[in-house]
Structures are given as structure tokens and as C-alpha cells.
Amino acid sequence: MGFREINSKMIEATVVPGQRLFSQRGAMLAYKGDVSFTPNTAGGQGGIMSMIGRRVANEDTPLMTVEGNGTVLFGHGGHHIQVIDLTGDTLCVEADRLLAFEGTLQQGTLFLGSQGGVMGMVRGQISGQGLFTTTLKGHGSVAVMAHGGVLEVPITPQRPVHVDPQAYVAHHGDVRNKLSTALGWRDMVGRGSGEAFQLELSGSGAVYVQASEEKL
Known about the structure:
Number of helices: 3
Mean pLDDT: 82
Largest sheet: 13 strands, antiparallel
Oligomer: single chain
Number of strands: 13
Distance between the termini: 27 Å
Shape: elongated
């Protein structure tokens, strides 16, 4: 299966018998072959308990199950699309940024307060991303949406990466994130840089940064 980038705003998925994928409802643009699209009342993978967890965490974006034999074009709202291939690690991404993902991936939720303590909880409020985020783990492809282009920035143990919370799209790997602040006396007198808060990501992996500070 997998996804093929047609251009920056459209992808093509190959659907084969016996395998399924999930996409955001209404994201199908065109298809060829014998393909079915079924509303997924469970909101994705993991069964009823996982579904309840996502609804409690407000990470239950409506999805549909795509099955059959053919090819499907996906896109949504003219947003930029980035395909991310996972090879056993975990991707953290907001549910409303998910365009499509393969059914081989295990879906879950992560409480952000567990990373960075109180600042981890503040992070959700500052970034507008809430206290939970969606996780996808395993081997397979994910298509996420963003404003403008997306740049993949590697994260190494020796060099953490700082990201504007509004420009953050997703990250994967063995990565911890916390909210950091550079508030100083200049901010107090209105002469600061306007970049008072950043997300600090450390460990091993990569973070995806969009070319805009606008949320979807």
C-alpha cells in the first residue's frame, strides 16, 4: 500500500484486498477500481476503549475506512500534505491534521502533561493543541496536513530543536518535548522579540515545521 505524492496538495493511495487505511471524512477526491468508503464510528484503530479515550481527549476527528482494490486520490481544503513513513517508531500529531494513515499503524493518545510537568500542560494551552495529542506507532505511512510547505528538522541528543508552537506540525522518534520561555525584562517593557515561548524537543528523531504560524 503506501501513499504517493501527486503534488504538494494531493496524494494517491493504492488499496489492495485484505488491507485497509483510514482517512479523514470528505478527503476523497477521486478513485479508480472497486473501493468502498465506510464511516468509522470508532474513530480509527484500537477498539472501543481506544475510541472512548480519544473522545475524552478531544482527539476523535471523524474518519472513514477505505477498503477494496484500486487507487484513491486524497486532499483536503487545499492544505499542504506531507507523507511520513514510520519504521517502528511513534508519530505525535494532532488528530485534525491527519489526512490518512495505513491500517498497519496502532493509534493512541498521549497526555502532554506527562512530558514537561506543569509546563507540559501549559504547552497545550499556549499552542492551542490541548492537553492530549494523537499517536501512531508501527510500520506504515501517514499523511498529515499543514499550511504552506513542511520542513523536516532532525533532532539529535547533542542538539535539541526549538520550534514556535504555532508552526509545530508533528514529531516522531524517541523525543521529549517541553515548553520553554525566554521571557526577560525586555518583554516586560514591551521591547521583546515576540518569541517568548518555544517548544524544546530533545532526544533522537525529527520534528516537522510548517511555513506558517496559522493553525488549521
